[in-house]
Amino acid sequence: MGIRLRITVLPGDGIGPEVIAEALRVLRSVADLFGHQLETFSHAIGGAALREHHDPLPAVTLAACRTSDAVLLGAVGGPAFDNVAPELRPEQGLLRLRQELGCFANLRPAVCYPALVQGSPLKADAVAGANVMIVRELLGGLYFGKPRTVHGDVGSREAVDTMRYTEPAIERIARVAFDLARQRRCLLTSVDKANVLACSRLWREVVTRVGQEYPDVRLSHAYVDSCAMALAARPTQFDVILTENMFGDILSDLAGALVGSLGLLPSASIGGRIGLYEPVHGSAPDIAGQGLADPLGAVLSTAMMLRHSFQLHREAECVEAAVAAALDRGLRTRDLAGKNSRCVSTSEMGEGIAEAVCTLATPREIVT
Ligand code: IPM
Ligand code: MG
User: Fold this and answer.
1) Are 57 and 97 in contact (CB under 8 A)?
2) Residue 259's CB: how many other CB atoms inside 10 A?
3) Are 261 and 294 in contact (CB under 8 A)?
4) Is 193 annotated in the active site?
5) Can you tell me the mean pLDDT for 160-176?
6) Which tens digit of pLDDT belongs to each residue from 76-91?
7) In sequence order, what are the residues at sequence separation of 6 or more whose Cβ sits closer than 8 angstroms to the Cβ of residue 269?
8) 184 C-alpha to ligand 1 centroid (Å)
9) Is 113 a catalytic residue?
10) Who's near 242: CB < 8 A, 6+ residues apart?
11) Strand partners, 109
12) Omega before 147 cis (within 30°)?
């Protein structure tokens, strides 16, 4: 039986609209094939919203998100907004949205596709088989801690950001990570800076305590600096990485480079009633509007949406298999193509994946 998928779409800035168009093309083909009814409503966020509504998260956008089943977002930000007031920055729209939706758990899987092993900056045998799930705490730490100020006279000003974590906030994200580890290889690395930061010492203590409820999951702790090194040197040793907001922001970009391109990484921000799905890459203003952007992060974010917001596991797997098939066929956007290799445009990649969805899903779906 088909279901209704009511999705608020927030294309945002830079390459956001281009990659979201392809994600929706793929989502539509999956919905059609599996007999689901896709309803999308597009709204402004970030710089685009600032231009139209003088607010990076207009009330109408937030209201639309709240009344839908899930939110698909492209990217926010760009150099045009570098000089706006801090509270009006496009990024603030995204941070407020995460907060308003209560999305405290950000899942960022980084998978090394066999077809792309040669494209990694690491040696092929070091990266082959890498499959890491970064679980980033999304509503705490330096991103939201108060006070946050700049004061004093020019020349002698002082700026303050605050890293703050509560035990309940650490506990709830730890549970998400342990539960995920159970569905994977039962390995969890909790990443902190407990040799320096009070927040990290509390983090380590609480994660260890929660870990006692998961004796089947092998828990280890790593300092963030050493984890960054190990991730770059031996990514296959990791399964689930659990970490706080800022460390997760940084480590997930590193994970993107490892698997061939940041353009590949999807994310799911969950924990509230409504999930928010967005590629990890940013707005990439330097290549916006030229058909050069890699839509795979956005496309794979729709797979995460199907899985986490709608429990449509077969549909999610279909999207993921279609991405793998398109890569196997040799389709490469510029970020994935080697020097002098032929590349396809953003929309050609989207078309290729949508076609693969049809060939992959049709025989099985007709039979079952
Ligand atoms: C990300 C981005 C955001 C973040 C920015 C755009 C606010 O870098 O999703 O990784 O820092 O969380
Ligand atoms: Mg980031």
Assistant:
1) yes
2) 24
3) yes
4) yes
5) 98
6) 999 999 999 999 999 9
7) 98, 101, 103, 105, 106, 107, 138, 275, 276, 277, 278
8) 26
9) no
10) 135, 173, 174, 177, 188, 189, 190, 191, 207
11) 133
12) yes
Report the percent of the chain where pLDDT is more than 70.
Answer: 98
Report the distance separating Cα 26 and Cα 49, nearest Å. 26
Query: Counting every residue, how long is the chain?
Result: 368
Whether 280 lines ligand 1, by a CB cut-off of 6 Å, is: yes
Q: What is the pLDDT of residues 42-61, one digit of tens each?
A: 999 999 999 999 999 999 99
pLDDT, residue 366, reads 47
The pLDDT of residue 362 is 61
- What's the DSSP call for residue 152? S
**pLDDT score recorded for residue 1:** 80
91 lines ligand 1 (CB under 6 A): yes
| Confidence (pLDDT) at 119 | 82
Average pLDDT over residues 347-360: 96
Cβ contact 133:189 at 8 Å = no
CB atoms inside a 10 Å sphere around CB 59: 9
Query: Is the CA virtual torsion 52, 53, 56, 58 positive or negative?
Result: negative
Is residue 44 within 8 Å of 54, Cβ to Cβ?
no
In angstroms, what is the span from residue 254 Cα to ligand 2's centroid?
Answer: 10
Per-residue pLDDT reduced to its tens digit, 193-233: 999 999 999 999 999 999 999 999 999 999 999 999 999 99
Strands (E), the chain: 4-12, 37-42, 70-75, 105-111, 131-137, 145-151, 158-162, 187-192, 218-223, 240-243, 268-270, 275-277
Beta bridge partners of 105: 137, 270
Q: Ligand nearest 76 Cα, by number?
A: 1
Q: Which one, of 302, 279, 294, lies nearest residue 31 by Cα?
A: 302
Q: Please state, as a whole number, how many other Cβ atoms lie within 10 Å of the Cβ of residue 287.
A: 17
253 catalytic? Reply is yes
